[in-house]
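Running this now, will post back.
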Amino acid sequence: VGVWDRVWWPTDVSAWAMSPTPPNDIRLVMDVGQALRAKSLPALAGFWLGQAALNPPGAEAAQAQFLRLLSRLFDRPVPAPRWIQASSWGRDPFSRGAYANLTTEAPPNPRALWQRPWGRLVWAGEHTSIDFPATVHGALLSGQRAAGQVTRLLR
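Update: finished.
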């Protein structure tokens, strides 16, 4: 994730997918401000997908790769970010690369199904977020939703 003083990229779309060149390069870039509906947040996030996500480069190399990719993607020099951070779920001993993914066999609108209590059991996590799947803020918001459901179930 990189944060800049101002938006310098096109704002007519909120995400860009790239073919992997080289193969282990970042493949998806997302406008974080648009995704969070916080237009005043000038931030972009880059993601490795598939096997590349399990073994991304270290933090410094990842940051350099992200800036190079942005320069190629937008065909211009990239201004220096105010802040940049890289993380790797693949190296996290607790998640070990966990990621939710819907298959083509998934029922229609499965996230809405996962948001409903199943008896006294409620689900939370990024995989249940309709608006923000696969994100930390989707997980946070789903936890708040689930806490409200538990409160109502206990009344």
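The longest strand covers residues 43-47. More later if anyone needs it.
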